[in-house]
């Protein structure tokens, strides 16, 4: 019969425990990596939302205000132009003459005149 050698048994148990430890550590590291990936995704999301907020505050907001002002000015100009037809002085209107002069000057510079 074989005799039990305590050193062989002890080495076998240590190998078994080491393998189990390696297996458990692998799972633990995978969980840590997944946690880091999640943290990185959250940081990206935070940076993206911060960028969107700053973009809206610094660029979109002022542009919307400017567009609103321009729309008001265009509406006022349309109203003024439509009012020319009702003006009793339309044949000798100084505003119309100035607009014609500006139109001719812009054509001389090579710009397109609207209208």
Q: Count of helical segments?
A: 2
Helical amount among residues, as a percent range?
Answer: over 70%
Beta-strand percentage? under 5%
Q: In terms of quaternary structure, what is this? A: single chain
Supply Rg: 40 Å
Care to count the β-strands? 0
Which blocks of ≥5 consecutive residues have pLDDT under 50? none
Mean pLDDT: 80
Structure description:
The protein is mostly helical and about 120 residues long. About 80% of the residues lie in helices and about 0% in strands. It is rod-shaped.
Highlighted features:
115 residues, mainly alpha
Topology:
Elements (H helix, E strand, L loop, with lengths): L5 H79 L9 H15 L7
Task: Write a short abstract of this structure.
The chain is built from two helices and no strands. It has helices spanning about 5-85, 95-110.
